[in-house]
Write a structure and sequence with these properties.
heterodimer; A: mainly alpha; ABC transporter involved in vitamin B12 uptake, BtuC; 2 strands; 75% helix; globular; B: mainly alpha; two-stranded antiparallel sheet; 13 helices; 4 strands; cell membrane (chain B)
Chain lengths: 316, 332
C-alpha cells in the first residue's frame, strides 16, 4: 500500500505529458484544417484530397532529409512543392468543380486520392520511409521538475501556434485576408467589386496545400511516411472542421485543440479508468474501443446540439 | 413516360444478362468468372440501395459501407457463435439468441440491425445539410469501423472466416450457381420493391424534397421524416448486401466498413448514373471489371482509375445510364 502516495504524483506527470501530446496533435490538426476549412468555406468545394498534400509534404521532406541530412532544407523544399502541387490541382481539376454539386466534387477528389496514393507508390515504392528527428532536436527538455518532453514535439507545438498567429494577422490585418474573408461571406459581391476571384481561389488553395504539406513534413519524423498516410488524418480533420464550423479559422483552431485533446486523453486514460471500474482485460479493450470512437461520439453530440458547428461562418 | 419505359427496358436487359451469363461462362469453361459476376451483383445491390439515398433523396452519404459491414458482421457473428457452440446473446428472462448458420436468420438480424443503426445515425445526421451531412455520415461510418476493429473476440482487424456459406432449407448454398441465383433473386426483389417505393407518393415527396425542400415544407410535408425513413430503408438493404457478401466470400472484416469502401460504392452509383436504380448495377459492373482488367496490365492500376473517375465527373455527368439513354433514343 506504500505506493498509494505516489499514484497521484505519477498520474499528474502522466496527465501533463498527455496534455502536451494532445496539444501537439491539436496543432497538427490545425495546420490541416485551417487550409481545408477555407477551401470548404470560400469555394464551397468538398476536397477529399487534402490528405494527399500532407502525404506529399511528408515524402518530399523525408527524401530531401535523407539525401542532404538537413531538416531546414527539407522544409524549405517540401513547402513550395506542396503549394505548387496544390495550385496545379486547383487549376486542372478543382476549378471545374466549383459550380457542380458536392457529389461530383466528392467523386473527383476521391479519384485524386487514388491517383496520388498510387503515384507515391510508383515513385517511392511500397516500403514506408523513416525520417529521423534532426540531431539538434532529438533531446528532451525538462519543462517542470520531473516533466521531460521531446524538444521536437515542442517545436511542432511552437510552429503550430506561430502559424495560427500568422493566419490571425493575415486575416485581420491584410488586404488579402480581407478579400478572403469577404469571399467566404459573399463571393459574387467580391467578384463584383473587381477582385480577381479566380486568382484568389488559386492562392487560397495553394496556401491550404502548403499548410498541409507543413503538417506532413513535421509529422515525418514521428510517423511512418507511407502511401495512404493522408487519409487517417484527413478524417480527423473533417471532424475538426465540422465541429468548428465550416469556413471558420477560429472554429478550426478551437476544434483542432479540442479534438486533439479528446483523442489523446481518451486513448491515454479511458482504458485505465475502465480498468479501475471493471478490473479485467475486457474492460481494457472496451476502454480502447471507446477511446478510438470518442472523437466521433463527441462530434455527433456537438452536431446534435449545433448542426452548423461551434463557430459557423456567416456565409454558410 | 417514354424515358421511364426505356429505363424499365434497360433494367430488364441488364437483369436478363445477369441471368444468362452464368451458363455461358460454364460453356466457355470460365467458371471463375462466376464469382466475379456474383461480386458485381452484390455490390450492385449495395450501390442501388445507396442510390435511394443519393439519387432519390438527394442526400450525399459517405458512410454507406457501415451498413454493409453491419450486415456482414451480423452473418459473421451468428456463424462464429454457431461454430463455437455459444450464444450471441444470453440475457436474463429467456432472451437468448444462439449462434446459427441459417441464412434467413442472418438476413433478418442484418435488416433489423442495419435498419436500426440507420435510423439512429440518420436521425442525427439528417439534422445537418450539405457538407456537414457528408462528413457526419463519414464520421459515423468510421466510428463503426473502429468499433469492429477493437472487437478482439471477433478477430479484430483480421475479421472472421466463415466455413461454408450457411444454410437455407432446400438449397445447397455452397454450390456457386445456386448461391448466385439466390443473390440475383434477392436483387430482383429489391429492385421491384425499390421501383414501387420511388414511384409511390412517398417517393414523390422524397424527390420533391430533393429538388425543392422549401416548397415541400410549405406544402406541409415533414421532409425530415421522409428522408429518415428512406435512409433507414436503404441502410437495411445495404445490410442484406452485407450478409450476401459475407457468405459469398466466406469472410468478414472491418475493411468492409472503411470509408474508402463507402467511396467506392458512391463511385459505382455515379459512374452508372444516380437516380436510376439500374445505373448503379452498371456502375458496379464497370468499376469491378475495370479493376480486374487494369490489374492484369499493371499493379499500379489505381493511377489510371483515379484520373478516369475525374474524367467521368467532368465529361460524362449522367454516367453510363445517361450515355445509354442518349444512344437509345432521340426523343428527350
Amino acid at each position: 500500500m506504500s505506493s498509494v502516495h505516489f499514484v497521484p504524483v505519477f498520474l499528474m506527470l502522466l496527465f501533463v505529458e498527455q496534455l502536451l501530446n494532445g496539444l501537439q496533435l491539436g496543432v497538427m490538426l490545425f495546420l490541416m484544417s485551417a487550409g481545408l476549412t477555407l477551401v470548404f468555406g470560400i469555394m464551397q468545394v468538398v476536397n477529399l484530397a487534402h490528405g494527399s498534400f500532407y502525404m506529399i509534404g511528408a515524402y518530399v521532406a523525408a527524401t530531401v532529409m535523407l539525401k542532404s541530412g538537413s531538416f531546414v532544407l527539407a522544409l524549405a523544399v517540401a513547402l513550395p512543392v506542396t503549394a505548387a502541387v496544390g495550385m496545379l490541382v486547383e487549376l486542372t481539376v478543382l476549378r471545374r468543380l466549383y459550380e457542380r454539386d458536392h457529389l461530383d466534387q466528392v467523386l473527383a477528389t476521391f479519384g485524386l486520392i487514388f491517383f496520388f496514393n498510387e503515384l507515391t507508390r510508383m515513385i517511392w515504392g511500397r516500403q514506408p520511409l523513416f525520417m529521423d528527428v534532426p540531431p539538434w532536436l532529438s533531446r528532451t527538455v525538462e519543462l517542470l521538475p520531473g516533466i521531460y518532453y521531446p524538444s521536437y514535439r515542442l517545436l511542432i507545438i511552437a510552429v503550430g501556434i506561430l502559424v495560427a498567429l500568422f493566419l490571425y494577422l493575415l486575416f485581420s490585418r491584410t488586404r488579402l485576408g480581407l478579400q478572403i474573408r469577404a469571399g467566404a461571406t459573399n463571393r459574387e459581391m467580391v467578384a463584383a467589386m473587381g477582385i480577381n476571384i479566380r486568382v484568389l481561389y488559386t492562392l487560397v488553395f495553394g496556401l491550404g496545400a502548403l499548410l498541409a504539406g507543413l503538417a506532413g513534413a513535421m509529422a515525418g519524423p514521428i510517423l511512418a511516411v507511407e502511401a495512404g498516410m493522408g487519409e487517417s488524418i484527413l478524417i480527423l480533420t473533417f471532424v475538426v472542421i465540422v465541429i468548428g464550423g465550416i469556413g471558420s479559422i477560429r472554429g478550426a483552431f478551437v476544434g483542432a485543440l479540442v479534438v486533439g485533446m479528446v483523442d489523446t486523453l481518451g486513448r491515454a486514460f479511458l482504458p485505465q479508468i475502465f480498468r479501475l471500474l471493471f478490473d479485467s482485460a475486457a474492460a481494457d479493450r472496451l476502454g480502447l474501443a471507446l477511446a478510438s470512437m470518442a472523437v466521433y461520439v463527441f462530434m455527433a453530440l456537438i452536431l446534435a446540439w449545433k448542426p452548423r458547428g461551434l463557430f459557423p461562418a456567416p456565409g454558410n | 413516360m417514354r424515358a421511364f419505359l426505356r429505363n424499365e427496358r434497360l433494367m430488364l436487359t441488364v437483369l436478363l444478362v445477369f441471368a444468362l451469363l452464368p451458363p455461358l461462362f460454364q460453356l466457355m469453361g470460365q467458371e471463375y468468372l462466376l464469382s466475379l459476376l456474383n461480386r458485381i451483383l452484390i455490390y450492385g445491390l449495395a450501390a442501388a440501395s445507396l442510390d435511394l439515398i443519393l439519387g432519390y433523396g438527394g442526400m450525399v452519404s459517405l458512410g454507406h459501407a457501415a451498413f454493409l459491414g453491419i450486415g456482414a458482421y451480423s452473418a459473421g457473428i451468428l456463424a462464429f457463435h454457431s461454430y463455437e457452440g455459444s450464444a450471441v446473446l444470453n440475457w436474463p428472462m429467456g432472451l437468448v439468441l444462439p449462434g446459427s448458420e441459417s441464412l434467413l436468420l442472418a438476413l433478418f438480424v442484418a435488416v433489423v440491425m442495419a435498419g436500426f443503426f440507420g435510423l439512429l445515425t440518420g436521425s442525427i445526421s439528417l439534422r445537418t445539410r450539405g457538407m456537414h451531412f457528408i462528413m457526419i455520415t463519414l464520421a459515423f461510418a468510421q466510428m463503426f469501423y473502429y468499433l469492429f476493429i477493437s472487437l478482439d473476440r471477433y478477430g479484430g482487424e483480421d475479421g472472421i472466416s466463415l466455413f461454408g456459406r450457411g444454410h437455407l432449407p432446400g438449397f445447397d448454398l455452397n454450390n456457386d450457381f445456386i448461391y448466385y441465383y439466390l443473390c440475383l433473386f434477392i436483387l430482383i426483389l429489391f429492385l421491384v420493391l425499390a421501383r414501387r417505393f420511388t414511384t409511390s407518393r412517398f417517393g414523390l415527396v422524397l424527390r420533391g424534397g430533393r429538388d425543392n425542400e422549401q416548397r415541400l415544407r410549405a406544402l406541409g410535408f415533414p421532409v425530415y421524416r421522409y428522408r429518415l425513413i428512406c435512409y433507414a430503408l436503404a441502410a437495411a438493404a445495404a445490410g442484406v448486401a452485407g450478409v450476401l457478401m459475407a457468405h459469398q466470400g466466406e469472410y468478414v472484416s472491418p475493411g468492409l466498413m472503411h470509408w474508402t469502401k463507402s467511396g467506392e460504392i458512391m463511385v459505382m452509383v455515379l459512374l452508372g448514373g444516380s437516380g436510376t436504380l439500374v445505373g448503379p448495377l452498371l456502375g458496379a459492373g464497370v468499376l469491378l471489371l475495370l479493376e480486374e482488367v487494369l490489374a492484369i496490365y499493371t499493379e499500379h492500376w489505381m493511377v489510371i482509375l483515379g484520373p478516369f473517375l475525374i474524367l467521368v465527373v467532368l465529361f460524362a455527368r449522367n454516367g453510363i445510364h445517361g450515355l445509354l439513354m442518349k444512344i437509345g433514343g432521340r426523343d428527350d
